[in-house]
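Slide 14.
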Amino acid sequence: MGFFNNFFKQKTSNNYSSNDINIVTLNAKRLVEIINESLTIANESNNPETKISRLGVAKDN
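Slide 15: predicted structure.
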């Protein structure tokens, strides 16, 4: 997340390009997908190791 911290500290909201906004938006959407996929797999799995692993993925993202 260091990239995002630096990204937002270096600019004011008035000078983000549409490309900057698109990149951040795409990354945010993908992170949400990863978290949701991991939670679904953890919820549906009968394997405790898989549950722990997928919850860790969701937590770390």
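Speaker note: The two ends are 9 Å apart (CA to CA).
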